[in-house]
Amino acid sequence: MNEPLTLSASAQLTEDTRREARVTLGTGVGYGLGMVGERMFRDAPALLLLVFMTNYLKIPAALAGVAIFAPKLLLVFVDPLVGYRSDMSESRAGRRRPFLICGALLSAGAFIAMFNVPSIAATNLRAMYMIFLIGAAFAVYSIYSVPYLSFASDLSSDPYQRTRLLAYRMAFLAVGLNLSGSAGVLIERFGGGIGGYEKMSYVYGAICLITMLTPALTLPDPPIVRRDVQKANWRQAVGSVLGDVKYRRLLIVNFVQKISEGIGYGSFAYFFLYWLQQPLSAIGACILASTAAQILAQPLWVAASKRFSRTACCMVSLGGYLSTNILWLAVPPRLFWPVPVVGFLAGLFATGLMLMLVAMMSDIAVERRDAGDSRFEGLIGGMWLAVEKIGFATGGMLVAFTLSAFGFVESSSGAGAVQSQTTRIGIAFAYAGLGSAFYLLTLGLVLWMRKTQWKK
Predict the structure, then answer these.
(1) Which position among 55, 152, 199, 321 has the lowest Cβ density within 10 Å, counted as fewest Cβ atoms?
(2) Residue 455: helix, strand or coil by DSSP?
(3) Rounded Cα–Cα distance for residues 180 and 192 (Å)
(4) Which domains does the chain have, with CATH numbers?
């Protein structure tokens, strides 16, 4: 019979010391920088890959959506397994560090590969190649993203200090998002076309590598309690984590919210090109404004989390973001100045929701650990990211199916085929209508979670 894992008295002393420790500027920056490349790997393909496949590889929209979604089903198994293995790691270099280094190296190469596609004549074969490539890319990305998220729970046991640490993560996430949104500018600077995408991938791959390596090379591994690996097998670990009702409910909220986010990312470029009739480079200006808002808002959301409940902060941010999502429909075509204004408002509210959800997830991981339960921060983070990535991919697939249903015409020239008014309405519906519907559902789930169990 397996015995429950508990903290020893000496280990508890270490925990008390860590609980009192403040997150320093060096720790915050060292940890946060990893989020630049982590977010670029996720967001640049999310913004560009669907357009790249429909407008350059001449893959039909519905098939391109499947190519993005299907490989990520593997992450349901990959992410939790990576988290579990990092929890169990007995490496002298630290349980997270080897995963961070390996994941950074592989992710940089995978990013470059996604936009350097060999010439394949048959459409179905091109789609199959992209399915395999995207699946492999996001599998190696998991080797980095799961231990990186779990590292925050290792670095601090105090909820407020951990929220401060996660705020650094969110600030650098905004930088990664801005770079992702500026990819269109870089592609045009490199001459556009497939060649522009290829050159952009080399530059962004190098940025991913440098920033993703930073936490592993600059931060010391936190003091941890060693465990007897034989006392925590895979089935027991999964059962223990999923047995937490509060965590299961939070996973549902995270899944629906990420569907909303995936819809926004998947339809954003189309909304700019065909509804707002803006150049691809205008996305960069919008993302820059959103980045500024997210960075400036971090101290405000951290302070709000200390005074108000995390669920209350979620509701405020959701209400504000829903308003800005609908506001996009009021922006006249070809008029540029409202773009950064609405982008700033969107960033201001979106960052609060993302910060609070991740903070609640880390609260659960640390509460379980401090109560004497096993150290499954990696597994908790792995399940969280698996649900997040599947939800995000589901949103992108819903966009692809919506475009197909409204008659979107693919091309191989990069300029994009002329779309009908019906298709343009479908694009607006996907971005503002479908996205808002899922954000409303997210708001309802937060209210349900707050009423049933999560009062704080």
Answers:
(1) 199
(2) coil
(3) 16
(4) 24-220+234-452 (1.20.1250.20)
Distance CA 94, CA 288 (A): 36
Tokens of 275: 């509804």
The CA distance from 101 to 33, in Å, is 14
CA distance 172 to 60: 35
CB-count burial class (<10 Å; 0-12, 13-18, 19+) for 79: buried
Contact by Cβ (8 Å): 146, 385: yes
Give 181-193 pLDDT, tens digit per residue: 788 888 888 988 8
Q: Check: CB of residue 357 under 8 Å from CB of residue 226.
A: no
Residue 225 reports pLDDT greater than 70? no
Tell me the average pLDDT of the chain.
Answer: 83
Residue 226 CA, distance from chain mean position: 30
Work out the number of other CB atoms within 10 angstroms of the CB of residue 39: 25
What's the helix, strand, coil split of the chain in %, to 5? 80, 0, 20
189-198, 227-236, 446-455: segment of lowest average pLDDT: 227-236
Contact (Cβ atoms closer than 8 angstroms) between residue 198 and residue 115: yes
Question: What percent of the chain lies above the pLDDT cut of 70?
Answer: 88
Tens digits of residue pLDDT in 344-369:
999 999 999 999 999 899 888 877 77
Single-letter residue type at 455:
K
Question: Do residues 148 and 41 make contact, with C-beta atoms less than 8 angstroms apart?
Answer: no
Q: Is the dihedral of CA 305, 310, 312, 318 positive or negative?
A: positive
